[in-house]
Amino acid sequence: MADVAFEQSRIASAGGVRRRTSLHNALKRKSTMAFLMTLPLILLILLLVVYPAFYAVHLATLNKSMARFVGFGNFEFLFKRETFWLVVKQSCIFAISAVFFKALIGFIVAHFVHNVPAKGQRKWRGMLLVPWVIPPAMSTLAWLWLFDPSYSAFNYTLSAFGIGPIPWTGDAGWARFSVILVNIWYGAPFFMIMYLAALKSVPEQLYEAAAIDGANWWQRIWYVTLPMMRNIIAITALFSLIVTFANFDIVRILTSGGPLDHTHIFATWAFRVGIEGSDIPLGASVSLFMVPILAVAAIFILRDVTKRGNEA
Amino acid sequence: MADVTLRKVIKRYDDVEAVRGIDLDISDHEFIVLVGPSGCGKSTTLRMIAGLEDITDGDIMIGGDVVNDVPPKDRDIAMVFQNYALYPHMTVAENMSFGLRLKHYPKAEIKARVTEAARLLDITDLIDRKPKQLSGGQRQRVAMGRAIVRNPKVFLFDEPLSNLDAKLRVQMRIEIKKVHQKVRTTTVYVTHDQVEAMTLADRVVVMNHGRIEQIGTPNELYHKPATRFVAGFIGSPAMNFLPCRLEEVGGKLNLRLTDRIAFPLPPARAARYNALPRSELLQLGIRPEHITESHGHLEPGVESFDTVLDVTEPMGMETLVYFGLDGVAVCGRVNPNAGAQDGAPMRLAMDLNNMHLLNETTGVVL
């Protein structure tokens, strides 16, 4: 009997040692340690991102008084509203055109700064980053004054050439133009700095090889610069597309979605419907509609980035 | 194919003169190697020939035409870069054909040229791969292929082997030589590796501080260096330089190295150096292979002396021995079976028939 008890305790202690060893081994693994070290951040993300996201999904399935489950009822209601499709169209126009011009201007300016001699480059970089550094709510207020129908600095300047006055925020077309313009002004420096970093990483010898191969300026851009920058262009465009699609402050301050909802985009309309219209579930449904659109864009862009990641 | 001529070419960056008025005539089909230490102006010279750097003054001619203001693409040259400079997003075939595509060559001709170059360089199987999928040696071949398909007047190589490991470098050196033997295009090759320079070149141009120190065949540079710089730069291990003076003893000319070591000069050398003032500050230049173990019978002009070895380096086919003469470190090459050991005394022999005498002040070989 004593022998059996001894044997059992030995087995138990061996089991304990094994458990301790496996725990020790698990802790020694780099992946476990990395996971443990990132755990606080993961929990923070869960709290700040995942919980609100699921809560938004939950909200979108409730009725206006948030007392009854209506399933896809809010979405069905949205699909039938003309304003919703106007917002979808405007959001796409706003995001795509703003991102396109931000990328184009960012690329051109990055080239300009890249070719500025090293001495003066910091000064230019600093100055060109100013729009991106100023809080957009503040800078948009300045733009609002520039677009003012009565005292507009733009109209005053244009009047000297016999042009105008232009209803910058009063006409649907001009209002769309204005919000896109301000968004481009605000976001182009981000593209500029990203593209500048990418340009600096293109080996000079590739340009020299291309010059010897007979490539002119445009062919060097087309065959060397752009392919070498494709990944950064794609990632920057995706990032900007997401941020621009979800933009709120510029439109809210400049036009509040007007005139006649013609500059509303998802975020501002969700605010209008959800907060100002006191229909939180419908507002949540509007903002959730951005997810599938951006997810499709993200999948396509990131798939391309991964594919090309093996080339460099 | 064409000859290349440089006339009084100067390159100045602000107040720094990188190339100081060099003259160089490169014949058609010739393989010229520019060699020298870092910052000697060899790469700048090559880049000026390529048109990648403007020249400050002078003339560069390719095929008899002055090309000072001609852009690189119109000079009909091809260049192989140190880092290969292959376009990472293009396949091997696309990399090789890029120049031809830009010039709108017919597709059939492009394909034929790429296939031929790939066959020549043994990279036919790699034609559809991207540069990232290639080893260093393969990338180097592709870079050469890109140059070959253009069928240019001049090939320019800018330290093309310096990124390869020692074994591959030897292999690629032979490949480059074979390719030149086949295509016979005028070639200007820049390297800081004197072994590459000696093995590849028809003629070597040794550069230092933006000037040409000497131009000659590898053998000329090795056996008849014009300056101390060339004598010290060409050859590995480097030539030994020992302070010395000439003295006349009993009507014969002696070379005094230290208070206790003085050798009579061989008749040919004595005649050559007889006119030199005895007070002139001189240096003896002698290559390690001309300091060997002493045999019983010494050839005329070979003199023996006793020393204590500091360090020995067995290399297999030979042993390098290091010892001091009046505080100057000297290297010799002895037979591996000569019994050389660290710290041991040894009788060595110096072959004065192959000595060089240099002016200590000017560094000119006398």
Jot down its keywords.
heterodimer, A: 312 residues, mainly alpha, MetI-like fold, 2 domains, 14 helices, flat, disordered N terminus, B: 366 residues, alpha+beta, six-stranded mixed sheet, five-stranded antiparallel sheet, 9 helices, 20 strands, 25% helix, 34% strand, elongated
Stretches of chain A where pLDDT falls below 50 for ≥5 residues? 1-6
Strand content of chain A: under 5%
Largest sheet of chain B: 6 strands, mixed
Question: For the CA atoms, what is the radius of gyration of chain A?
Answer: 28 Å
Radius of gyration of chain B: 25 Å
| Residue share in helix of chain A | over 70%
Main sheet specs of chain A: none
The strand count of chain B comes to 20
What is the second-level CATH architecture of the largest domain in chain A? Orthogonal Bundle
The overall average pLDDT of chain B, rounded, is 89
Number of E-type strands of chain A? 0
Number of domains of chain A: 2
Q: CATH-wise, what's the superfamily of the largest domain in chain A?
A: MetI-like
CATH hierarchy, class of the largest domain in chain A: Mainly Alpha
Oligomeric composition of the shown chains: heterodimer
Distance between the ends of chain A: 71 Å
Shape of chain A: flat
Query: SSE string of chain A, helix = H, strand = E?
Result: HHHHHHHHHHHHHH
Which runs of chain B of at least 5 residues are low in confidence (pLDDT < 50)?
Answer: none
